[in-house]
Amino acid sequence: MHWLHWLHALQAAGVRYCPPKECRDTSVTLALMAGANPVWVAMQHGHSVQVMMRDYAKWIPSADRGANLAAVNATLGAANEGANGLE
Predict the structure, then answer these.
(1) 26-56, pLDDT tens digit by residue?
(2) Domain contains 54
């Protein structure tokens, strides 16, 4: 996209100027904060998973909302229930 098209699009949207790369960064950050799978986000944005983790991993914990710990605890609880039946 020619830079003038970009400038006109931003003016039409009523937002301050920012380079196109910042929009990409914002898209990645918002997706991760919403809880999207980091592998999917990396594929959507043409990143490797390594780049995704290096540059954007700091945004993943805010999306967790305890879901990862709950999943681990649920799995451990299911394993303990099976073990208790053997006693």
Answers:
(1) 889 888 888 888 899 999 999 898 988 898 8
(2) yes
